[in-house]
Design brief:
By secondary structure, the protein is of the alpha+beta class. It has 15 helices and 14 strands. The protein has helices at residues 7-19, 69-72, 82-104, 144-154, 184-189, 256-266, 271-274, 294-301, 312-316, 323-327, 350-360, 444-459, 467-481, 493-497, 503-515; strands spanning 35-37, 40-46, 52-59, 113-115, 162-164, 169-174, 284-288, 338-342, 377-379, 383-387, 400-402, 410-412, 419-424, 427-428. Strands 8-7-6-2-3-10-13-14 form an eight-stranded mixed beta sheet. It has a two-stranded parallel ribbon with strand order 1-9. Strand 11 and strand 12 form a beta hairpin. The longest helix has 23 residues, at 82-104. The radius of gyration is 24 Å and the shape is globular.
């Protein structure tokens, strides 16, 4: 008798993969007796035979201050909260899988990705590439009339050579509730005084002294955008930034609740991965029962009218969840994930570590300089990312071991091709911050470079690509690597994100931010680098 895959099985698999990491990747007990804790997240694939594969996992809970973004140059992670880093590691896994398929010839298959057929690949203006047309130019640099003409076709591009297999489901496990709107009730319950904070009223716009329609003498100053972190916790449904200490440098990195809500529309794929793989969505988000608030999760993620902030997408968006509409909007749809709970606790969760620290009954040496005075626990500064090894043979199954549980859990075998790293402050542990040699495998620069390599392999005919696939690969390579305004005339990262092929993705993001995630402020400053 086959037993259905449960949240406990998914959580257990991610935790087992984490347990297999070296001790140096784990939270420690400090010399002063303080016990460290850390959030854990992981992406799990469920095959058609109900086998489970952990494809990526991550720990971490910090982000880069906005003022440091211009120094990052694609080398430093912006956000290493566990949920976001696990998704970036998953993108690295996908690109490695694409690379293996491109290298392996027609016999190479993947249990997770498939090659798309010529009939599936939609590129309405690809013929312009053979006639010298502006195939992948930055749409924003066009004239207004050109932009209007571009908009008629930009939203139709859907010629990624690969797609996530339809019979393989994706689940995400998180050991803590996502920061932001989904956890506001939990935040309120944890307060000594849960009385609503007074919400400041924004200053009124100045009233013009004249009815003259003439423009002002100078530009009107734009106020600096702000987003609440944990503050004003009675303000529900709002877009929030990452929570931090009051004395921490400001950031515009959005909360995990907001980013996960957006992923229901844009999929789990980053911009560069989106050029190679058709949108892939989560089926379920698994949270510990102790970290689940039904009202908060419904409000943060649901499109049910009267319950969720995504409800406005039902009536106000110009794209829909129908198959026909998806075909002309780059494959993007609204895919709400189900939020499910597990009774399993992660051994390094805040709750489990607090329990162990209390049971240890050790003398704590307080330190007034690191914020641990009077505490027995503290958050770990270390972030860890891991991905499973990509497909490495022409068989349909990756190298793995299988448990005796029902259903069996397929655990990826650790090989030299599996990736594992620890970062501090968004940079590889032991490397100087902002040094290119310290770039994470999930950084912007590394993911872009790997995507460009895959596109080049496809152009050269790797993997037995069809003519349609090769034609699409030429478009993709041009988008990733064409001459641009960067140093040495290389295309800059910001130009890649603004290319025509990513117009469907940009449109969906704009729609969601306008209709459902109002108040979203872009975290800009790290787009001006080249490979």
């Amino acid at each position: 008798m086959t037993v259905a895959v449960t949240p406990d099985l998914i959580a257990s698999l991610v935790q087992k993969e984490y347990d297999a990491l070296p001790a140096k990747r784990k939270p420690a007990v400090r010399d002063n007796g303080i016990h460290e804790w850390v959030p854990l997240s992981g992406i799990v694939a469920q095959g058609k035979d109900d086998r489970l594969y952990c494809l990526s996992l991550a720990t971490g809970m910090k982000c880069l201050p906005s003022s440091k973004l211009p120094q990052a140059q694609g080398n430093v992670l912006h956000d290493w909260h566990a949920e976001i880093l696990a998704i970036r590691a998953f993108n690295r896994f996908l690109l490695e899988e694409c690379r293996q398929l491109a290298l392996g010839g027609p016999s190479m298959t993947s249990p997770f990705l498939r090659r798309r057929t010529a009939e599936e690949m939609i590129s309405p203006s690809s013929d312009r590439s053979s006639s010298g047309g502006r195939d992948c130019e930055n749409v924003n640099n066009s004239s207004s009339s050109e932009r209007e003409r571009e908009s008629e076709t930009c939203n139709y591009w859907h010629a990624q050579p690969f797609a996530w297999r339809e019979d393989v489901a994706l689940h995400m496990y998180c050991s803590e509730a996502p920061c932001g709107d989904a956890s506001m009730e939990l935040t309120m319950a944890a307060q000594t005084d849960a009385s609503p904070w007074e919400i400041p009223i924004p200053p009124a716009s100045p009233v013009p002294l004249s009815s003259s329609s003439s423009p002002p003498a100078g530009p009107t100053p734009t106020p600096t955008p702000t987003l609440p972190g944990r503050a004003y916790f009675s303000l529900l449904g709002a877009v929030r930034r990452k929570p931090s200490r009051g004395d921490a440098p400001p950031t515009l990195s959005k909360s995990c609740s907001d980013k996960l809500a957006l992923k229901q529309c844009t999929s789990l794929l980053s911009s560069t991965t989106s050029l190679l793989v058709s949108p892939a969505y989560l089926r379920a988000l698994i949270l510990p029962a102790a970290q689940y608030d039904e009202v908060g999760c419904r409000r943060a993620f649901s499109d049910v009218v009267g319950e969720g902030r995504m409800a406005s997408l039902k009536t106000n968006r110009t794209w829909s969840s129908t198959t026909t509409a998806a075909a002309i909007t780059g494959g993007y749809e609204f895919h709400p994930f189900e939020v499910r709970t597990t009774d399993l606790e992660f051994k390094f969760s805040r709750r489990e570590v607090a329990r162990r620290a209390a049971a240890a009954a050790t003398t704590i040496t307080t330190n007034t300089t690191d914020g641990t005075k009077g505490k027995t626990t503290a958050a770990s500064n270390l972030a860890v990312a891991w991905t499973a090894a990509p497909t490495s043979s022409s068989t349909s199954s990756p190298s793995s071991t299988t448990t005796t549980t029902t259903p069996p859990i397929r655990i990826a075998t650790r090989t030299a091709k599996a990736l594992e790293e620890a970062t501090l402050g968004g940079t590889l542990q032991g490397r100087r911050k902002f040094d290119a040699r310290g770039a994470s495998f999930a950084s912007r620069r590394r993911l872009w470079g790997l995507a460009a390599e895959v596109a080049r392999l496809l152009v050269l005919g790797g993997g037995g690509a069809s003519s349609s696939s090769t034609s699409a690969a030429v478009e993709i390579e041009r988008a990733l690597m064409s001459v641009g305004a960067g140093a040495g005339n290389g295309r800059m990262y910001g130009e890649v994100k603004q290319c025509r092929l990513l117009a469907p993705r940009r449109r969906i993001k704009e729609d969601v931010r306008r209709e459902a995630l109002r108040g979203w402020v872009r975290n800009e400053g790290d787009d001006g680098f080249s490979l």
